[in-house]
């Protein structure tokens, strides 16, 4: 059985890696001043954060049309027997539901949709694992259980500089946003039951980042062999410095750096930082 992997742009896997692993990507879009841009296609991450600085109204985001899934699945059906389609959490976007609807209409190919229940490179971990296994000739019946193993061990925490982005986008309640802003709280956030919720309330950015490190250390001390990614919103040097520090502190962990792209960055805002990790 020939299996291929599909994901959406919010996994933020670099193009050269997608090409090497034969990963096919469906883009979500951001709307800036009435113009629609497909992230990772029409708009890169640095241009996005530059554009946001010069506008008064926050961008909005849109999920891919079902037709785009249908077209891609139909094209892939010409060459593959099965498709594993991995997407951002169904609790914050309708993208996964769009994939499910298109999968039900797909002909001459079996489509296995997978709700990552998360986003960004945490979602990307599933995609990379599935694509590597597919290239090694593994079947969907072998790949999906492995993704479930990763999910059971997945941890991801992030902090934002300005809660208003999450509140305006409907991803956080107005009350939580107001309280956080008034008290200068930098809450640690995480995904729970597919949606973004506060994990702990922390006063400063420095303390929030240290708390993430403490949580990572707890898993390292359990003897788990981990891969981790630092995720930043236009904080390239800060992410690089953090990675250098962590690589010394945790030599057994494989660290990488990723980013909050336009769609997720619209909801989190510039300056956000986070980290995700799971078992190797």
Automatic annotation (TrEMBL):
Tell me the InterPro entries matching this sequence: DegV, DegV_C, DegV_domain_contain
Presence of the UniProt keyword Ligase in the record: no
Keywords in alphabetical order, please: Lipid-binding
What Pfam families does the record tag this protein with? DegV
Protein's UniProt keywords contain Nucleus:
no
The name of this protein is DegV family protein
The record's section on PROSITE patterns has: DEGV
């Amino acid at each position: 059985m020939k299996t291929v992997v599909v994901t959406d742009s919010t996994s933020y896997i670099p193009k050269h890696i997608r090409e090497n692993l034969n990963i096919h990507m469906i883009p979500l879009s951001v709307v800036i001043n009435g113009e629609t841009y497909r992230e990772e296609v029409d708009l890169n991450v640095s241009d996005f954060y530059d554009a946001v600085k010069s506008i008064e109204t926050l961008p909005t985001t849109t999920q891919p049309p079902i037709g785009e899934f249908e077209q891609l699945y139909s094209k892939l059906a010409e060459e593959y027997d099965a498709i594993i389609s991995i997407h951002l959490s169904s609790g914050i976007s309708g993208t996964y539901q769009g994939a499910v609807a298109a999968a039900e209409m797909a002909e001459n190919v079996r489509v296995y949709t997978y709700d990552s229940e998360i986003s960004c490179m945490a979602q990307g971990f599933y995609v990379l694992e599935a694509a590597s296994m597919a290239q090694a000739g593994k079947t969907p019946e072998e790949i999906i259980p492995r993704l479930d193993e990763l999910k059971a061990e997945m941890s991801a925490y992030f902090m934002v500089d300005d809660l208003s982005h999450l509140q305006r986008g409907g991803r956080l309640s107005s009350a939580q946003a107001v309280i956080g802003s008034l008290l200068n709280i930098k809450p640690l956030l995480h995904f729970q039951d597919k949606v973004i919720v506060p994990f702990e309330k922390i006063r400063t950015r420095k303390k929030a980042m240290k708390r993430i490190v403490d949580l990572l250390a707890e898993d390292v001390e359990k003897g788990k062999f981990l891969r981790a990614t630092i995720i930043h919103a236009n904080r390239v040097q800060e992410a690089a410095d953090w990675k250098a520090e962590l690589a010394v502190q945790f030599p057994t962990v494989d660290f990488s750096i990723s980013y909050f792209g336009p769609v997720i960055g619209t909801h989190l805002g510039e300056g956000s930082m986070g980290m995700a990790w799971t078992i190797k």
